[in-house]
């Protein structure tokens, strides 16, 4: 994490919940990752709230509310009405307001996960909105994705490569993907997950515990 991000994180923690972005292409498994992280944070006694972003619906928020994993009132929906990155980067006002509202309703909240709508590889989060962010790609999108050097993949605090269970079915060499993604990120961290079989989820949760919540 760079110095300004660290500073922003320290400032934010002093006045409220830490805010963590989850971005990535359509269908890479952002909502599935949140559904796995909710119980992982419950086991770690972290008070959680969630903001989802969709284009013109509240589809992802309703899916999480229906899951029974979290109090539905702790899930807020933002309808972007535009390219998803506009409301997480250019003008994050709607998302900041949604997170502020959750904090006002639930003063004990320690961590707010903000899921972007599915976007392209150039999608990034404003540090006015989040303190730390993940970018989720999936194995089925192709093992050439890390070689494309998209800003989302390069700049995020943690790259998550999901759907490892599909690797044998789509001819992806996970070791090669690991080497190329690590090189593209200059050695910064990445995690492999399989949300279907809950693999790698605890590693992601533990990283957030130490890097974001300092616990
Ligand atoms: N095989 C497999 N399927 C997965 C995994 N994670 C998610 N999926 C499936 O991939 C599809 C998309 O997952 P979502 O969690 O909806 O993806 P998303 O990134 O939130 O999608 P958008 O919000 O539309 O951008 C669903 O059918 C999931 O069940 C995984 O690790 N393995």
Structure description:
- The protein has 215 residues and is of the alpha/beta class.
- The chain has a single domain, classed as P-loop containing nucleotide triphosphate hydrolases (Rossmann fold).
- Helices cover 37% and strands 18% of the residues.
- It is built from 8 helices and 7 strands, in the order αβαβαβαββαβααβα.
- It has helices spanning 3-15, 30-43, 59-66, 93-105, 151-155, 167-170, 174-184, 201-211; strands spanning 18-23, 48-54, 75-79, 111-115, 132-138, 158-162, 190-192.
- It has a 7-stranded parallel beta sheet, sandwiched between helices.
- Helix 3 links the parallel strand 2 and strand 3 (75-79).
- Helix 2 (30-43) crosses helix 8.
- The radius of gyration is 16 Å and the shape is globular.
- It binds guanosine-5'-triphosphate (GTP).
- Guanosine-5'-triphosphate is lined by residues 26-32, 60, 118, 162-163, 165-166, 194-196.
Features of the shown structure:
Rossmann fold; 7-stranded parallel sheet; alpha/beta; binds guanosine-5'-triphosphate
Chart the SSEs and their pairings:
Blueprint lengths: L2 H13 L2 E6 L6 H14 L4 E7 L4 H8 L8 E5 L13 H13 L5 E5 L16 E7 L12 H5 L2 E5 L4 H4 L3 H11 L5 E3 L8 H11 L4
Parallel strand pairs: 1-4, 1-5, 2-3, 2-4, 5-6, 6-7
The chain binds guanosine-5'-triphosphate.
Guanosine-5'-triphosphate binds next to α2.
